What does this fold into?
Amino acid sequence: MLIAAMVLFICLPAVAKEHPAAAQSLEEYLLSYDDDARREMKANSLFLIDHLMDDEVVLVDIRFAEEQQVWNFNFALHIPLNELPLRLDELPKDKLIITACPHKDRAILAMAYLRTQGYHVRYLEDGLLSLAEKLRGDDARMLLQFLPPERFQHESKRDSD
It folds into this structure.
């Protein structure tokens, strides 16, 4: 969380110059931050799986491209954190977005940034490693049965170029 605070401290002046309303939105969010907001910013793997099956969320894997090439979730949208500001047009505004990385440090940064851009977003608090552990055997088979096939074709615009 310290990393997220430091990045926000460094980046907010630049965001404020380019997006004054977005920076004010983050300021308002921080000023009203309480226990409910702390709980609302997180999603665990079981929440993600349940809401994926209901087609209510989009998982955004924000790991670096080389990490995604080694192992990935083919039902996730793959946008590395360092490309996120340039690829906002790939994200839906009508669904909850859950940002994820192996643990949660980069996911928290992505969540904070996307909130300044007007997205409804949470971060995967138990990380992609925990999600992988939960999606084994019968649980993976069950998810496959519920997700439409097009969710497994989730190539980003950059991947298909």
Q: What stands out?
A: The chain has one domain: 2-151. The domain at 2-151 is CATH 3.40.250.10 (Oxidized Rhodanese; domain 1). Residues 27 and 148 are 38 Å apart (CA to CA). Residues 4-24 have pLDDT under 50 and may be disordered.
